Amino acid sequence: MKRLIGIGLIIGTLLMLAGCAGANAQSPAAKAAAGTQNTTTVQRGNLTATVNAAGNITAHQQVALNFGQAGTVQKVNVRAGDRVKTGQVLTELDTSDLQLQLENAKVNLKIAQNKLAQTKAPSTEQDIANARSRLESAQASYNKLAAGPTKTDLAAAQAALASAQAAYDAAVKSAAASGSTIDAATAQYQKTLAALQTAQAAYDKVATAPNIGARSESTALQTATIDYNQAKANYEASLATSGSDAKSKVAQALSSLQQAQANLAKLQANENDLISSKAQVNQAKNDLDKILAGPDAATLDTAQQQVTQSEIAVRQAENKLKQAQVVAPFDGTVTAVNVVVGQAGSTSGTTGAIQLADLDNLEIVVNMAEVDVSKIKEKQIAQITLDALPNLTLTGEVTQVAPAGVQTQGVVNYPVTVAIKNAPPGVKTGMTSNVNIVTDQKSDVLMVANRAIRNVGRQKMATVLFEGREIQAPVVTGMSGDSQTEIVSGLKEGDVVVVGTTTTTQNRGFGGAPGGPVMVPPR
Question: What is the DSSP string of 393-434?
């Protein structure tokens, strides 16, 4: 019980001292002391916390634009200062050759599409009938060659040849009897003709050999051809010197003889004729099978791939045409034009053919210290002043806080982007600006000047003037602004507090020596 009474007395004493300090904060003695010291008064108001940095104004979007390929500049459609829209052509190269390439690619695409359509189209009854007819005709020809001539046909052909030969011999003798020299020329002509036919038949059998030019059959055919041409020339010369009637009879007889020889040769097919005829039969059969079966998967795929390749070629040609133009990627203002008509267009370069910036949306990128960046968040409001326009204050908003810092000479900074709202025309890119970002705000809070609060160990203290004495008051603070600090407890509105004192205080208990600093408990 005694212990409880003691605790109650202590608490009562503390409350009494606290009440006295509050009641006498504005006493005449306190005011007199305040007049000789640098003091401030605890008051209520709105408190704002900010962090600040400096930076230069830039456009939200700005870019140096180059051509996508080389060429000669044909048109420049803008000047510096022009406002342009997204997709607007700013300058372009001569595209006459590129247009022809595109047209050619489109033609090739049409051909590939038609071929694919034909491949996919089913065969008509007429197509099938024609293929059957070709097969039947080829088969009939082969069968006839394979069977050989009938005895009757062969006998008739041989008889016709014998008759023609007899008629020819008679015409030659008649011409010779009349004093003509045609007899010897004719004999030589017939001899070389027979030799030529034999050489030709031998050559035909090996005509497909890869080294045909070096074979003896080729040499023999050349020799036989030369001999035949010479004998024919002599024969024709003999006819020219003979009588017209004899010449005419010999010529007619020779023509009949040659025709009879050809007819007999047709009936006597050789091995090469059979091979060739058989190949025609196989080809006709394959053609009919393809028509009946329709296109296979490989054929369709090949036709489709050809279409795809042609489509790619068209897109490539279209891309080349687009690359011959410099097009605005966003709405903005042309800040520089670095090309003229007739100049070679470049595909690289930091200056670009055209420089474009979005001057309607200006922003500032400032570097924040690592101790401040944690206080900054997107959408926080910023107050902006400019060195070039000292009487103008702009409003901005934080739009981006870099997730990673940039280290320069051992110092880490974090880029923070602040968008300027409703910038007037006089504000231009490159201007130096001072940015104050509001990180926190409170209304109707108890506050005192920052310099009135000091740290004593881990305790925050304030020096209150009370009846001419300095009373050390422990305080609990909240938010701190640029010049004011929120007081959560320990002081009350109207208290006069010493600012910037360097007095060293000692804890003398709650009573203290008369006239010396007195410790009071938190309020």
Answer: EEEEEEEEE-SS-EEETTEEEEEEEEEEES--TT--TT-EEE
